[in-house]
Structures are given as structure tokens and as C-alpha cells.
Write a sequence for this structure.
């Protein structure tokens, strides 16, 4: 699946302005049902029952009312009369209306109803100008986003292919490594509840809009987050045990490679590394790190689920 880098800024705008549903109808992918902020998942795979047959956004499930069409017509008339240099200001103030698919459909309807070629040309030109104006407005919102949202954006951007700016899902190892490098540059105090809430909001919005690939990327961000903050919080001492060394390796690698690493490392070395020793190391971390977090916080839930998945993988290893 391929997603373009430009979708990030649009997504940030939609999340920061929750009343906007404008870009939702532009997706051609069937939407996934994503967990709510209280049940964020890192590893789950959607089942057919999780996939709704239509958009869950109320505004996309019904025809507009006469009053809504009147509002759209008034805005179209206002934009037709506005100088081109005024479009960004006008669009910014009415982005909830202007960014909706229904707005562009109404322009097309009015173009068909126009009685003169001059009017048709003006409406067609307006539609083209609005597309570029919306892109510019969305881009400028980056300047007013808080540091938390920008941190998330930078990590997600690192998942894009450098030359094309596209997202290739599943992500290539190089892109995951780039995401981890960006995460490593973020100071621990900034990897807080606001950081996780932003990711969860993006996931929820992406799921509603059918952006399946973006959901996968954001799940990967959560996995990298969990490995990073747990690594920083652990105290392995000056002479870590073989189990502690392996655990650190697992925390700092892609979760898709866990099974391979476990098969290669369990039972290896002069001091045979057992799955029991690794499980004990994980358990100590749960007790000293995860249980010490604020009870019920997103940080605690995300890190606990991450380690629970690792425990499941270790338990699935064949016993010698």
C-alpha cells in the first residue's frame, strides 16, 4: 500500500480540529475500525467483522439539507468574488465547509447548471484554486502545532521513502530504523501522555478515513515508543546478564524480527540462555518500570501490552 507524505499535514489538521470531516470522503479504501483512546492496540490484526461497510462519519452517510446547501452556495459565491490573494484567509476561516467533498460536488453541480461559458470557467478555476489553497492552508498549520504533534509528525515522516515521499507498507527496515533515530532524539519528558494521545487520535482518525496504511505506521510508532522508553527506564548495571543483553536487543529492534532473534539466541552461548531467564528479566522490568507508572495511564497500557506481546512470543518458543 502506498500513501503520500502530504497526507500527514492534512491528518494533523483534521485531528486538531475535530469538527472537520472534510477529507474523510476522499478515501477510496474501506475504513478499519480502530480502537478508541482507552483501548489502543499495537499488535492486533483487524478481522472481517472489524471492517464496517460504510463510513462511520455521520456527515458522509446522508444527503445535505437545504440549509446546508444554502451555506455552501453562499460560500461559493463569496469565494468567486474574493481576489485570489484573499483565498487563503477566507478558506482558513471556513475550512470546515470548504474542505468537505460536498463543497466540491456543489461546485461541479453549479458548473453544470451555469448558463454561460464565462460562469462555467469561473467555477472551474475556483475549484482548481481551492485545491492548491487548501494544500497551502494545511501546510501552514504546522507552524502553530505544538511540539508534541510536531514530534509525532517527524517520526511519521521518517517512514516515507526519501526520494518519492511515499509510504510503502509494510515498512522497509531502513524506514523503521529512520523512525527509531528520530524517536531517539526526543527527550524523555516529551514522550508523555500528550505524545501518546496524539498518536491515538491520528490512529482513530486514520481508521475512520480508511487510511489503513497510516494505521499500520502509527502502530509501528507506538511499538518503537514502547521499546525506547522501557530501555531508558531500565537499569541493567555494569555487568548485565546474557538475558538482560538479549532483552535490550529485543527492545531496540523491530517487533517483526523478534521471533528470528529469539530462535537464534535462546540456548546460545557458554552460559546457555534459557527462555526462563529472559522471562524473569521481562518480569523484573514489568515490576520496576511498568507498574511504577501512573495507574491506568496510556503509557502504562501501551508499555504493558508491548511486553505482554513479547512474553507471548517467548512462551511460543519450542522447548528444548
Amino acid at each position: 500500500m502506498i500513501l503520500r507524505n502530504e497526507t500527514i499535514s492534512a491528518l494533523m489538521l483534521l485531528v486538531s480540529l475535530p469538527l472537520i470531516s472534510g477529507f474523510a470522503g476522499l478515501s477510496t479504501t474501506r475504513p478499519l475500525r480502530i480502537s478508541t483512546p482507552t483501548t489502543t492496540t499495537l499488535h492486533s490484526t483487524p478481522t472481517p467483522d472489524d471492517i464496517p461497510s460504510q463510513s462511520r462519519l455521520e456527515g458522509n452517510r446522508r444527503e445535505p439539507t437545504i440549509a446546508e446547501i444554502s451555506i455552501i452556495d453562499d460560500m461559493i459565491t463569496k469565494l468567486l468574488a474574493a481576489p485570489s490573494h484573499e483565498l487563503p484567509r477566507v478558506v482558513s476561516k471556513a475550512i470546515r465547509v470548504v474542505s468537505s467533498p460536498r463543497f466540491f460536488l456543489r461546485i461541479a453541480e453549479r458548473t453544470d447548471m451555469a448558463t454561460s461559458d464565462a460562469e462555467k470557467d469561473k467555477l472551474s478555476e475556483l475549484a482548481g484554486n481551492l485545491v492548491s489553497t487548501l494544500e497551502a492552508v494545511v501546510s501552514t498549520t504546522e507552524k502553530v502545532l505544538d511540539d508534541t504533534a510536531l514530534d509525532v509528525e517527524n517520526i511519521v515522516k521518517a517512514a516515507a521513502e526519501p526520494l518519492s515521499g511515499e509510504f510503502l507498507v509494510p515498512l522497509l527496515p531502513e524506514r523503521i530504523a529512520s523512525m527509531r533515530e528520530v524517536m531517539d532524539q526526543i527527550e524523555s519528558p516529551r514522550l508523555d501522555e500528550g505524545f501518546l494521545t496524539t498518536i491515538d487520535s491520528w490512529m482513530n482518525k486514520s481508521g475512520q478515513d480508511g487510511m489503513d496504511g497510516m494505521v499500520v505506521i502509527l502502530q509501528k510508532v507506538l511499538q518503537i515508543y514502547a521499546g525506547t522508553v522501557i530501555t531508558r527506564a531500565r537499569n541493567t548495571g555494569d555487568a548485565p546478564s546474557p538475558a538482560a543483553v538479549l532483552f535490550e536487543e529485543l527492545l531496540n529492534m523491530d517487533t517483526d524480527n523478534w521471533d528470528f532473534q529469539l530462535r537464534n539466541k535462546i540456548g546460545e552461548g557458554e552460559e546457555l540462555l534459557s527462555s526462563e531467564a529472559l522471562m524473569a528479566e521481562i518480569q523484573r522490568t514489568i515490576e520496576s518500570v511498568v507498574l511504577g507508572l501512573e495507574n491506568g495511564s496510556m503509557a502504562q497500557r501501551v508499555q504493558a501490552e508491548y511486553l505482554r506481546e513479547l512474553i507471548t512470543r517467548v512462551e511460543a518458543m519450542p522447548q528444548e
Remarks:
- Strands lie at 2-4, 166-168.
- The CA atoms of residues 43 and 309 lie 8 Å apart.
